[in-house]
Amino acid sequence: MTATHLPGRRRIAPPVGATASAAVVLPNAEESVVLARQYVVHVLGTWKVDKDITEAARLLVSEVVGNTVVHADSPTGVEVTVWHCDTRVVVQVHDDDRRPPIPRDAGLETECGRGVLLIAALSHTWGFEVHSHGKWVWFALSA
């Protein structure tokens, strides 16, 4: 996995207090969910981030990248950026699809449709930014 940034994608501003960052571009494919999890765990381990925060980031990046793979038309891939800040970790995922993430009202028997709700429940804060080349979906975890 190579740290890179795709040309043409508008960079989202670094979070306030950011002291380190790492980024990777992955294909918009099912195996990228696992690769994104591994990447985030590796980066946060290198930065010696608390294991509970790392586990939450692993779960949430799986949800965001999984949503991208299932719902987004992103031929240039999925970009995952991880930021370490003084008091938090921020993970941003970019895809080429301009449609915003929409929370669903998943029924008890439904196997999917809870990703956005899970992100909202487990993160300190989350959001998205739509722009001309797609969107960034991000979440922050208190460190």
CATH architecture annotation name: 2-Layer Sandwich
**N-to-C SSE string, H for helix and E for strand:** EHHEEHEE
Report the radius of gyration as a whole number of Å. 14 Å
In the CATH hierarchy, the third-tier topology is known as Heat Shock Protein 90
Assembly state (oligomeric): single chain
How many angstroms separate the termini?
25 Å
Low-confidence stretches: 1-7
Structural class: alpha+beta
Approximate shape? globular
Please, what is the average pLDDT? 85
Level-1 CATH class name: Alpha Beta
**E-strand count:** 5
Q: What about the largest sheet?
A: 5 strands, antiparallel
**What's the CATH superfamily, by name?**
Histidine kinase-like ATPase, C-terminal domain
Compute the number of structural domains. 1
User: How much strand?
Assistant: 25-35%
Major β-sheet strand ordering: 1-2-3-5-4
